[in-house]
Amino acid sequence: MIIYVVQSGDSIDSIAAAYDIRVDSIIYNNQLSYPYRLAIGQALLLTAGENTAERTSVVSGGYAYPFIRPFTLTETLPYLTDLFIFSYGFAIDGELVPPQLDDTWMINLARANDTLPILTLTPFGPDGMFSNYLISALVNDPEVQQNLIDNLLQTMEEKNYGGIDIDFEYILAEDRIAFAEFVTRVRMAANAAGYPVSVALAPKTSDDQPGLLYGGKDYRLLGEAANHVLLMTYEWGYTYGPPMAVAPIHKVREVVEYALTRIPAEKINLGIPNYGYDWPLPYEKGVTAARTISNTEAVEIAIANNAVIEFDQVSMSPHFTYEKDGIMHEVWFEDVRSLNEKFALIREYRLRGAGYWQIMNLFRANWLLLADTFYIARPSSEI
């Protein structure tokens, strides 16, 4: 695969001729829409020959809600080791709460593609938000934990799930040890039944990092408690924050380097965002809210508004500005260049693999580049 950055005067015909490749392969790889206009600065993934380089083996996981389009999931599953189905909750007594929509079709489709369906457990309260009250009630009550574990294992067997992912956020600092002990208890019971257990970790860079996202997540304890972990290395740029890269590579690297002092590399999956944000300007803290967009939508916005896509050399992320209806906008997103930097980090530190939040929008160039860079191990049911 070759990454080509569009220059002024380029067209898909001129690029295809220059690299002696088919126009339809450029269109397919990059999900271009008729009439196939390009943006200056747009990164294209070109299939220019067979890859003879040695590829290391990694796992790849992606989170998805049951309302994902069947076409999107079908196109994505060949590149996934694990499908994290989002999500199951639980009541104050440990009774399991299934997703509002049926997840059976996703499980069956994953199994048909030799992808392991993973039950994702979240502590959502009645308002649909993460509840640290619910977490605290669970991790400090052994009877509630046992009821939840029994319900998990029964559901796993009945629905043909292949693993458990514990995605708890906003854990109270005083519940740090109790939460790790809960993960250990789930892992021991699940492993005995043949299921691996993973846990999602907020992106810390030190043991004592302040903040509600970080205090309850002890990297060392959770690295020992779970079979493997996901570093949620995204959301530096977020809905209510100022415009910036969602996953700036220098910040991602800091998290990885800290994590490696507490958790073995072979247990670590690097979180990768499959989305971007569009901020109206000027940004005003507490007022401005960015709109979540797909990576392909970001490029379409640039094309529609004749914007030039730039690439920041510090965050190693694409961005651009445009004006519409008298309002300036700033967009940050992911492209094959920024993804290539993240893949390089996985190679450099020999991490276990990658985990995507989320796969609801198809980004074909990402999956083609991933498969060209690594050998995707299947299945990943090791415990």
> In what order do the strands lie side by side in the largest sheet?
3-4-6-7-8-9-10-16
User: How many strands, which pairing sense, and closed or not: the largest β-sheet?
Assistant: 8 strands, parallel, barrel
Radius of gyration (CA) equals 21 Å
Order of helices and strands: EHHEEHEEHEHHEHEHEHEEEHEEEHEHE
What is the SS-derived class?
alpha/beta
Helix content: 25-40%
Q: Ranges with pLDDT <50 over ≥5 residues?
A: none
Distance between the termini: 34 Å
Mean pLDDT: 96
Per DSSP, what share of the residues sits in E-state strands of 2 or more residues?
15-25%
Number of strands: 17
Instruction: Tell me the number of helical segments per DSSP (H or I, 4 or more residues long).
Output: 12
Shape: globular
Question: Helices and strands in order, then pairings?
Answer:
Layout: E1 2-5, H1 12-19, H2 23-30, E2 43-46, E3 56-64, H3 70-76, E4 82-90, E5 96-97, H4 104-112, E6 116-121, H5 132-139, H6 142-159, E7 163-166, H7 176-192, E8 197-201, H8 219-225, E9 228-231, H9 249-259, E10 268-273, E11 276-280, E12 291-293, H10 295-304, E13 310-312, E14 317-324, E15 327-332, H11 336-349, E16 353-357, H12 364-373, E17 374-376
Parallel strand pairs: 3-4, 3-16, 3-17, 4-6, 6-7, 7-8, 8-9, 9-10, 10-16
Antiparallel strand pairs: 1-2, 4-5, 11-12, 11-15, 13-14, 14-15
